Amino acid sequence: MNFLKKIVAVGVVSFAPVYLSSQTAFSQEYLKSFAGIACVFTPDGKYIASGSEDNTTKLWEVSTGQCIHTFTGHTEDVNTVAFSPDGKFIASGSDDNTIKLWDLSTGQCIRTFTGHVEGVNTLIFSSDGKYIASGSNDSTIKLWEVSTGQCIKTFIGYSRSVNSVAFSPDGKFIASGNDDNTIKLWDVFTGRCTHIFTEHFNAVNSVAFSPDGKYIVSGSSDKTVKLWEMSTGQCIHTFIGHSDVVESVAFSPDGKFIASGSWDSSTKLWNRNTGQCICTLTGDSFFVKSVAFSADGKYIATGYSDETIKLWDINGYIITPSSAPPLIALPKPTAPANLVISDITYKDNKNNNNNVLDAGEHSEIEFKLSNTGKGDAYNVIVKCEETNGLKGISIENKTIGTIKSGEAKEISIAINSTLELITSQTNFKIEATEGNGFNANPVEVQLLTQEFLAPKVVIADYKFSNEHGGQIKAGVPVNLKVIVQNIGQGEAKNVELNFTIPHNVFATDKQDFNIGNLATGDKKELNFEFFSNKQYNGNTIIVDAVLKEHFNRYAENKTMSVELNKVVPPTEKVVTTGELYSAKAPELASLTSDVDKNIPYNNKTAQKRFALIIGNEDYSAFQTGLSSEANVEFARNDATVFKQYCEKTLGIPEENITCLTDATVGKMRQGLDKMNKLMKNSDGKLEIIFYYAGHGLPDENTHEPYLIPVDVNGNNLQSAIKLSDVYQQLTQYPAERVSVFFDACFSGGARNKELVAARTVKVTPKTDMLTGNIIVFSASSSEQTSMSYSKKQHGLFTYFLLKKLQETKGELSYKELANYLENTVGLESVKINSKEQNPQTNVSNDIKDIWGKWQLLQ
User: Fold this and answer.
1) pLDDT in tens, 338-351
2) 442: burial class by Cβ within 10 Å (0-12, 13-18, 19+)?
3) Which of 116, 390, 527, 713 has the least CB density, counted as fewest CB within 10 Å?
């Protein structure tokens, strides 16, 4: 097959000799052109068959480029062609609703298969050559017996066009792609659909089985290629890089590579295992309609919308560059090249400037690649690899070619992600290799990744009316006002609304509305007017609102109805509506604990509830000579996250919350004084919440417990804050109730030592110290240590306090909370820290009979 030396013209189709290096990027060059759109190789690779919009099927000799035969007989476009496994026959499917079987030795049509009622889009032979499967615009798949031309089975289950069919290598299954965005797997013998693959967001245009039958590959109008595991039905990889509809996909004969053709005028070759795009074939600015591998896997044929088929040599990419003999010798260096990667930036294509790779995002890493050596750099290839093993990331490598001495090039690497991406961190390793071994030092780029935040588009409300009010009657226009709203967590793009109405009911204007994009919480009011004629005999008029958005899965349809002869109000000329619920998109968490995320939101506001929250962690920064081991690990996180629960879950307005981290004695006293004055100037109906995480110590003589500000030394308790003073300020004036939470201890177990991170100074406040409507939740008993939960980055007591608030959304009684903390923390402390820690609940005598019934949410 020495067609590289030939120059042949066949009709209006021409091709010229092209000599390619094994590392050349196929940006403009190809080996040959033929005529047609659909293309397929013979099993021996000697011929290509093509189908065309001129109603013909042609057979081309690969080695010469000559058209050997033209098969005529179809009366409309030929959309699909296939060779029998023995290479003796060609089957062709046409818009004339027929399939024809052609004898290659005679060129005669030996059989016509009729039964489809609309155009045939796709067909394929079974591996034994006994059957043909076909898919049609009539929404059916048919199984034909080749020897008789009889349709022996029709597979029904689609409501839209069948775009592609593929036989499994063992002939037991048929896979099909459809305009309803799904891939269906059919049992050939029973005709039943055994599995539906549903992760594409738009029409599935092409499907193919791997040679071993373990995988299915699919190409879709959602611009992606997906790889599916046959045994489980799971999508195990999504290949991203095309910028338009993917029309055709094919496996290489060894199953290691996948080719995909797109409306973006390119064909991409992918490594099946790594998901890397090995090369991109771009010829003209026409859509790629079909792709096919030769039997030896060295060539790809691509069919275009301009009625040409191009043949490409991919041998240098299938075989690794180190083992593939280049067709052009690599220039020998006369001086060393020195490649340097610098000025790396990340371009966020969502334009939200968050420097995060979001799910479903197309972004880029840009950098400068310079050759500072005295010699030229040849066959430079830029490779980028994701090293953390995250799914849902696709990267396209680039062939740069030659970089001369002293030259610098601006490089852009496309980083694409699918909706499979999780919230995590990804690492990219960027390398630049040179043909003679003068490679650049690799660099690494770290990025945060954000999981997909789904929109949810709904009809939030609707209302029927007419112009003057009165009954709904035939011939009287009825106005339907709807509110379309996105109540999901992510932006809804390309939102559309279509109203469908019964027979004998007519719209006065348009039924289709293009809404555009809706951010979280955004809404759009629309009016749809209709009327019925006198032939409408129903008692109600049913109107269906069909919503769509970009992904075709995050919109809910709505069925609405209005009774005939029902009195409705007049149509409002000016409409004002209250604010509908607007879902709050969660912020990207900076902490790893589960209680720091998904904090429940309560839309009730407790205007008379106030909170003072203190988290003292960094004692060493305020006290010279104190080691960092004396700090209270995670106390700041305890306080800041407890504040979020107070605001979001317990309904305390943000202006009612005082949150202090690493508080000095002055700040702590100011905070307590503020709470005291609030109660003094109220009617006794205020509720106070006081939370403290930090060190506590007792006086060694009086055993009086103290809270320790970050600027107070354990040997100078006169400057610390007495626990009794805290209680006195919180109960001096009447209050509805006072709730105190201590993640600290006061016993003096480490009295003669430095303050330590384990919060080892412990004493439970005595009940006789408490007066008024006050309840105190303490982290441990007097004989125990209040420990941390390092894995969750919280104090152990605080973690389970927050966990209960998260699970119950704050809807529980004080008694339920006390029981949960005592039982759960006691058990988990032994499991996690191998020490006992039993929280205590203390109340004043004033409320001993009623506190258990108090509710956290009033």
Assistant:
1) 999 999 988 876 55
2) middle
3) 527
For the chain, the farthest-separated pair of C-alpha atoms sits apart, in whole angstroms, at 114
CB-CB neighbours of 728 under 10 Å: 15
Residue type, 846: D
Q: What is the pLDDT of residue 349?
A: 65
* Continuous segment of H or E residues that includes residue 727: helix 723-731
From the CB of residue 542, how many other CB atoms can be counted at a distance below 10 Å?
13
- For the purposes of burial, counting CB atoms within 10 Å of the CB of 165, is it exposed (0-12), middle (13-18) or buried (19 or more)? buried
Residue 29 pLDDT greater than 60, yes or no: no
Three-state SS letters, 493-561: EEEEEEEECCCCEEECCCCEEEEEEECCCCEEEEEEEEEECCCCCCCEEEEEEEEECCCCCCECCEEEE
Nearest to 343 by CA among 443, 429, 449, 416: 443
CA distances from 106 to 57, 175, 440 (A): 14, 33, 59
- In angstroms, the CA 136 to CA 149 distance is 17
pLDDT at 790 over 90: no
683 backbone dihedrals φ, ψ, rounded to 5°: -95, 20
Token representation of residue 9: 């013209």
CA distance 594 to 596: 5
Q: Are 38 and 290 in contact (CB under 8 A)?
A: yes
Helix (H/G/I), strand (E/B), else coil: 829:
helix
CA dihedral 398, 401, 402, 403 (to 10 degrees): -10
Residues 6+ apart with CB under 8 A from 776: 740, 742, 765, 770, 841, 842, 843
pLDDT tens string 81-125: 999 999 999 999 999 999 999 998 888 999 999 999 999 999 999
CB 397 within 8 A of CB 384: yes
Coil, helix or strand for 483? strand
pTM: 0.46
Query: In the structure encoding, which two tokens stand for residue 804, read together?
Result: 């209960």
Q: Please determine, for residue 764, whether its predicted confidence score (pLDDT) is greater than 60.
A: no
Average pLDDT over residues 215-231: 91
| C-alpha distances in Å from residue 305, one per residue of 11, 16, 53, 309, 482 | 18, 21, 10, 9, 42
Q: What is the pLDDT of residues 680-699, one digit of tens each?
A: 999 899 999 999 999 888 87
Burial class (CB in 10 A: 0-12, 13-18, 19+), 745: buried
What's the pLDDT band for 591 if we cut at 50, 70, 90? very low
| Residue 752: per-residue pLDDT | 33
Q: Which region, left, alpha or beta, applies to residue 419 given φ > 0 means left and ψ of -120 to 50 means alpha?
A: alpha
Most confident by average pLDDT, 324-333, 376-385, 663-672: 663-672
Q: Which residues contact 608 (CB under 8 A, 6 or more apart)?
A: 682, 685, 686, 687, 736
